[in-house]
Amino acid sequence: MKHPGGSKSNSSRNATSAQYDEKPSPYFEGVNARIASLIPTDHRARILEIGCGAGLTGAAIIAAGKAADYVGIELNDAAAAKAADRLSRVIVGDVETLDLGSVGKEFDGLIASEVLEHLIDPWRTLRRLVKSVKLGGFVICSSPNIANRQTISALLCGRFDYTDRGVMDRTHLRWFTPKSLAQLVIDAGVEVSIVEPLVPLRPRARIVDAVTRRHFQHLFHNQTVVFGQRVR
Fold this sequence. Notes:
This protein is of the alpha/beta class.
């Protein structure tokens, strides 16, 4: 495995970057099994992941024979150092200001899991990133769902409290519902085929979801995953 490439410019060290530096190391670790399960099996594939953290999801994808070249972009130095021992290449920097020409093109897939909500302009950034993917290549995005019942209940009580992690993480700059996340991906040039909870609904929620014909599914999950293919 290779060591991190690239460097952070002073312009990338904004207030959000400083808050990331204060995150405990477990924040950047863990395998997102749902994301990994959505990726087609292709041992020759080239995959780009934004916000790769410590690289555990990428390592699981490589181990499953779903990628030969796995490039990660990560803002946190400590997490990137760990990812460098697990992925093909890791670039340290802010994806919003990074020269994507140094990242490469013609990727078979792009993963942006739990990262878009941290960006100043996720719409522009995702459009730029999707251009690094081949036509027909997959795009997977996941993000917290602001339309879940706990957040709505808090708003009804006049509360909008930030937390250290979760939907109301204090480092979040943007929030999405399932529909608005899907629209963000569509606007980036992707034909979306999956919009669903990142974690399966619990039994009681599944019953309500079935009875209401999925019209109120957004109330019952905290994270949404969107899957599609680049069409333009």
